[in-house]
Amino acid sequence: GGKGSILPQKGPSTSQILAFITLLPVGGSLLGLAGITLVGTLLGLAIATPLFVICSPVLVPAAVLLAGAVTGFLTSGAFGLTGLSSLSWVLNSFRKATGSEPLEYARHRMQEATIQMGEKTKQIGEMMGDKTKQAGEAMKSKGQEAGGGGGGTVTSRT
């Protein structure tokens, strides 16, 4: 195995990582606010419409109702558009920084980690084999010293 990497050495900069970390929750929360605002606007319309029908001669409540509905829809759309555009920007900046899609990038990182772990495991296995061999030789030499230096081979008759 060589020291070469599967991935290009160019990674995201610190400012891009910080932008990703800050814009991801901001985009998600803006999308959440867009949904909450839309649901609130629709509930407000559902509650206020019967009152408007009952009190139809009164124009001020109708104007307030329409103004609230328009404001709610516009706010919901603005939050949604802002959230989607920030998430899109984060994804595009990630693509520029890594040169690949996020899932492809993660897959390559996993492959690289697997290769490194394999090499490390092989090195540790070789090291353990060497240590075992050294320990065996040391035990053999101590056994020969303790046995009086005979060191001859033992034969058995059956």
TrEMBL record:
Where does it mainly reside?
Answer: other
Gly residues compositional bias, start-end? 145-158
Q: Which UniProt keywords apply?
A: Lipid droplet, Membrane, Transmembrane, Transmembrane helix
The membrane topology noted for this protein in its Swiss-Prot or TrEMBL record is:
Multi-pass membrane protein
- Region Disordered, annotated ranges: 132-158
Source organism, top-level taxon: Eukaryota
Question: Where's it found, cell-wise?
Answer: Lipid droplet; Membrane
**Segments of skewed composition (Basic and acidic residues):** 132-143
Q: What is any one GO biological process for this UniProt entry?
A: response to freezing
Q: Which residues cross the membrane?
A: 17-38, 45-67, 73-91
Any one GO CC term of the record: membrane
Please report which protein family the annotation says this sequence is part of.
Belongs to the oleosin family.
- Function of the protein: May have a structural role to stabilize the lipid body during desiccation of the seed by preventing coalescence of the oil. Probably interacts with both lipid and phospholipid moieties of lipid bodies. May also provide recognition signals for specific lipase anchorage in lipolysis during seedling growth.
- Name of the featured protein: Oleosin
